[in-house]
Every structure is written in structure tokens, then in C-alpha cells.
Design brief:
Layout (H helix, E strand, L loop, with lengths): L1 H21 L6 H15 L12 H20 L2 H14 L6 H22 L5
């Protein structure tokens, strides 16, 4: 059980480190874009597959998210990742931000609305 808790804590730290990496210009562009997508998805309260769907609902949390994190970690140089992890460790003790949560939810709503508008059939 202790190993599982340590793994979960390291995963949480790496998600925060990816968020930091996505905003740092020293990170390669492809890694920044993917890090932004993975961290944004991980921090978002909205899931690609809702958790209420048996088995599939947990698939993105258990398989897809760690796979995305692993891929981004492979794209970021190790020395930069050490810096990002150290910064993430120092930030984990800070209080949570309600404004950040609202911003993430707002971004998801705007993205969904834009996709709906784009694909919605129009007459004439």
C-alpha cells in the first residue's frame, strides 16, 4: 500500500511538473504542447470517458493518463525535468486555487462549444 501511495504522489508531482514544463520556453515545442494537453486533461475535472461508465470510465485515468505522462517525460531533457520536479515539489504545499479550477472548466466549456459550433449542421 505504501508503494501505491508513493506512486500516486509521484504521479501528482509529475503532472504539476508537466504544467510547469508546458509554460517554460526551454522545453521543446512538441513536448510543451503535449505537456499542456496532458496536464490540462489531468487537472481538468472533466474526463474524456466519464467515470460512471463501468471499466471504460477508469481506463483514461489508469492507462491513458500515465501513458501520456510517460510520453511527455521522454520528450523533455532530464536536466530540465529535474528542475520542473523540484519546482513542483515546492508548489505542492501551496493552497489550491479556485480561480484555476474555474479557468480550466471555462476552457473546457469554450472548447466543447467551439467544436459543437464547428460540426453543427447549418442550413443554407
Amino acid at each position: 500500500m505504501d508503494r501505491l501511495k508513493a506512486w500516486a504522489k509521484a504521479l501528482k508531482r509529475d503532472i504539476l511538473a508537466l504544467w510547469i514544463a508546458a509554460r517554460d520556453r526551454r522545453t521543446p515545442l512538441a513536448a510543451r504542447l503535449l505537456a499542456l494537453a496532458v496536464a490540462g486533461y489531468a487537472l481538468s475535472p472533466i474526463d474524456l470517458i466519464p467515470d460512471v461508465i463501468p471499466v471504460l470510465g477508469l481506463l483514461d485515468d489508469v492507462i491513458l493518463l500515465p501513458l501520456g505522462i510517460w510520453l511527455v517525460l521522454r520528450m523533455i531533457p532530464p536536466d530540465l525535468m529535474r528542475d520542473y520536479r523540484a519546482k513542483a515539489d515546492s508548489l505542492q504545499d501551496r493552497p489550491r486555487s479556485l480561480a484555476g479550477t474555474i479557468a480550466v472548466v471555462g476552457i473546457w466549456i469554450i472548447a466543447i462549444a467551439a467544436l459543437a459550433w464547428w460540426f453543427w449542421p447549418r442550413s443554407g
